[in-house]
């Protein structure tokens, strides 16, 4: 969901040439699967194109390659640190750090909650905040 929303926001801002946006899992159970049908339905309702992809697992090389690695929850961050061998460059962040609501909290996983609307609201707020932060800090 986050990849599709952030890709959409970046394109709306005319900044698609300034970004490379990818999604990766931190566990193995969903590898090879497409986005969940609940995610596809919620994005369709919002008029946001679904970025078609199959789940891949984050690699240690991803840490070196990308400037920012954004996790949805504390378990993601812990797994990302393990995969990357730490976070010496401070690249790992929770998405909700950018939502402007105080301390970074977890995005509830709709796989477990079934609440794609709440996840959509959180992910949209986090993605908008991340884009604004990058603009403000002259990172793009």
UniProtKB/TrEMBL annotation:
<protein>
    <recommendedName>
        <fullName>protein-tyrosine-phosphatase</fullName>
        <ecNumber>3.1.3.48</ecNumber>
    </recommendedName>
</protein>
<dbReference type="Pfam" id="PF01451">
    <property type="entry name" value="LMWPc"/>
</dbReference>
<feature type="domain" description="Phosphotyrosine protein phosphatase I">
    <location>
        <begin position="1"/>
        <end position="133"/>
    </location>
</feature>
<dbReference type="GO" id="GO:0004725">
    <property type="term" value="F:protein tyrosine phosphatase activity"/>
</dbReference>
<dbReference type="InterPro" id="IPR050438">
    <property type="entry name" value="LMW_PTPase"/>
</dbReference>
<dbReference type="InterPro" id="IPR036196">
    <property type="entry name" value="Ptyr_pPase_sf"/>
</dbReference>
<dbReference type="InterPro" id="IPR023485">
    <property type="entry name" value="Ptyr_pPase"/>
</dbReference>
């Amino acid at each position: 969901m986050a990849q599709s929303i952030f890709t959409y926001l970046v394109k709306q801002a005319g900044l698609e040439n300034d970004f490379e946006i990818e999604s990766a899992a931190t566990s193995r159970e969903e590898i090879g699967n497409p986005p969940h049908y609940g995610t596809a339905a919620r994005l369709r309702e919002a008029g946001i194109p679904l970025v078609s992809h199959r789940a891949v697992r984050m690699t240690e090389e991803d840490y070196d390659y990308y400037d920012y690695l954004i996790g949805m929850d504390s378990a993601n961050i812990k797994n990302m640190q393990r995969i990357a061998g730490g976070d010496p460059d401070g690249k790992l962040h929770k998405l909700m750090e950018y939502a402007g609501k105080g301390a970074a909290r977890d995005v509830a996983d709709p796989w477990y909650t079934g609440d794609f609307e709440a996840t959509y609201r959180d992910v949209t707020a986090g993605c908008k905040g991340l884009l604004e932060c990058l603009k403000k800090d002259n990172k793009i």
